[in-house]
Write a structure and sequence with these properties.
heterodimer; A: 290 residues; Alpha-Beta Plaits; 2 domains; six-stranded mixed β-sheet; five-stranded antiparallel β-sheet; globular; B: 267 residues; mainly alpha
Chain lengths: 290, 267
């Protein structure tokens, strides 16, 4: 069954484009990554799915129901964690979570306590006194407390330290294991690679590609920077090397393939510095998806 | 009704402060009444020396005597109107735009509620506060007059009529506030709009009374519910009241449909 299904979903803000003809299908039980640079239209898509903004044309279904007309029914089973967390500052954490729970049928006191314990969140503090990371925890608890079937995360890891991030990913995996579908938006490739089964890549408001995470990993480009004397471009004219530049005794290029090939070519040179890193998403878009 | 309850609580502090302000204003101004009334002749002499236009602009026409209870209260009530005008415009603008200004929209609108329910519950919470404020105005009017009328007689009918207009007067400014919200993409400072409309429409009415004529009066509730008219004539100017109510209804209609289709923007 498809949990999310969009058809030519398009949103213009006046004349400026938010998203255009977005078609995605998220299946039940998936962790679906939604990746793109800032301003690509990730939040616009999510906000349209949640009914915060209205599409210019096209439609979207969640759980098989129209997400605008049946929005309030659909949202019963959605947990949403926005990218930036702001809450009614003067409230205590517990009061905010209770207010959040009051929108759903049933008693969620135990669940609030459980989640807060797992996230090490103090329920008796005022929200305005919380650090950014702790506010984020409040967001996580309020997004998960009603056991949603679909969890939407909009750049959820910003501001979390690595330890917390790991804890958070474990929590998400656990929810997924128990049957929740996850829609995970991010601009950081590595975290999407860690968590997701499938990824849609969005740029300038349009979906460029939808791929299994394993395919994406196979196309793993590395960004290599070598600094040293007497370097020249010619020996590096290999298959798998792109965007080769030499500037100021520094050689830069992208490489895909067996890294030993590069190692051999480096043998004769005296190297001052060597850097091998994952390209940023921007660079992938620029060089790989062109 | 969870949104209503939640919203209602958020107004308490603000409501208390405004109420104290209104009570203080009425009592402080009424304190001077006994002195003024005792030197009625002198007061009227002083008044005669003021240019007619200035008195008109302050809501004191030629037939208003500061020596009588209701005459003096006319003068007081103009300031009460200013206060509740600003307050109502503030609430009207505030209650619809707060989610966007304080970025709590992502919390509320992602909940399983319809846009309509959010609007109605939020509206009712603010409306309740307006009604409570009008009760405060009523109570503090009678208390301050009783305390400082110095035993002088006054007609209670016109006063009740005047107080009866308060909720409509409030709704007018409240409606303007709502219209501003649905008419703009992003609101930053609510208080500047509230002060602008509260004082602006007052100035418009003052200007109208100086230049004469009715036209400018159409746009300002300070004219629709002019205290000097209601207290001195003992009746509500029906035509003007109808204009006011029509504008309120129109604004409510526009707000309703615009808000249901409103794009709630991200930070």
């Amino acid at each position: 069954m498809n949990i999310i299904e969009t058809h030519d979903l398009t949103k213009y803000y006046g004349k400026s484009k938010g998203i255009e003809d977005v078609n995605i299908t998220v299946k039940q039980g998936e962790i679906y990554g939604f990746i793109g640079p800032n301003g690509a239209g990730k939040s616009t898509t999510i906000r349209t799915l949640l009914g915060l903004i209205f599409p210019t044309r096209g439609s979207a279904k969640i759980f098989g129901k129209d997400c605008i007309e049946k929005g309030h029914e659909v949202r019963r089973s959605i947990g949403y964690l926005p990218s930036e967390i702001f809450y009614y500052d003067r409230m205590k954490v517990r009061d905010l979570l209770n207010y959040s729970a009051s929108f759903f049928e049933g008693d969620y006191t135990n669940r609030i306590n459980e989640l807060s314990e797992a996230m090490e969140l103090d329920l008796n503090r005022k929200i305005e006194d919380l650090s950014y990371g702790n506010k984020k925890k409040v967001g996580i608890v309020q997004g998960l407390l009603h056991k949603p079937k679909l969890i939407m995360l909009d750049e959820p890891t910003g501001g979390l330290d690595p330890l917390m991030q790991k804890q958070f990913f474990n929590l998400i995996r656990e929810e997924n294991r128990q049957g929740a579908t996850i829609f995970f938006s991010s601009h950081i490739l590595s975290e999407v690679q860690q968590l997701c089964h499938r990824v849609a890549i969005i740029k300038d408001g349009s979906i460029i590609q939808v791929e299994d995470i394993t395919t994406l990993q196979k196309n793993n480009y590395k960004k290599i920077m070598i600094k040293g004397e007497n370097l020249s471009k010619r020996p590096f004219d290999l298959k798998g090397i792109t965007n080769l530049t030499l500037d100021n005794n520094t050689l830069k290029f992208f490489f895909k393939g067996d890294i030993n090939q590069v190692k051999e070519k480096l043998q004769p040179y005296k190297i001052e510095d060597l850097l091998i890193e994952d390209p940023t998403l921007e660079e992938i878009f620029m060089h790989y998806y062109e | 009704m969870n949104i209503y309850k939640f919203e209602f609580k958020t107004y308490w502090k603000s409501f208390t402060l405004w109420s104290l302000g209104i009570i203080a204003l009425q009592i402080i101004m009424m304190i001077f009444y006994p002195t003024m009334a005792r030197d009625a002749q002198m007061m009227d002499l002083i008044m005669e020396n003021y240019p007619e236009e200035l008195l008109q602009a302050m809501g004191l026409g030629e037939h208003v005597s500061l020596a009588t209870v209701l005459g003096y209260y006319t003068f007081v009530f103009v300031f009460v109107q200013l206060l509740i005008g600003v307050q109502s415009a503030y609430y009207g603008c505030h209650f619809l735009s707060i989610e966007e200004r304080e970025h709590t929209a992502d919390f509320l609108f992602a909940k399983p509620v319809t846009r309509r329910r959010i609007l109605i519950e939020k509206y009712l919470a603010a409306f309740t506060i307006l009604l409570l404020t009008s009760l405060v105005v009523t109570a503090s009017t009678f208390i301050s007059i009783e305390l400082f009328s110095d035993g002088r007689e006054y007609e209670i009918g016109p006063l009740i009529l005047l107080l009866f207009t308060v909720p409509i007067f409030q709704l007018f400014f409240f409606s303007i506030g709502m219209l501003v919200t649905v008419g703009t993409k992003r609101i930053r400072s609510v208080i500047s709009y509230a002060l602008g409309f509260g004082f602006g429409l007052y100035v418009l009415n003052a200007f109208r009374s100086i230049v004469g004529g009715e036209f400018l009066g159409f746009f300002t509730p300070y004219y629709h519910f002019e205290p000097s008219y209601i207290l001195m004539e003992g009746s509500i100017p029906v035509g003007r009241a109808i204009i006011s109510i029509s504008m309120i209804l129109l604004a409510h209609g526009i707000t309703y449909f615009a808000y249901l289709k409103r794009n709630i923007r991200a930070q």
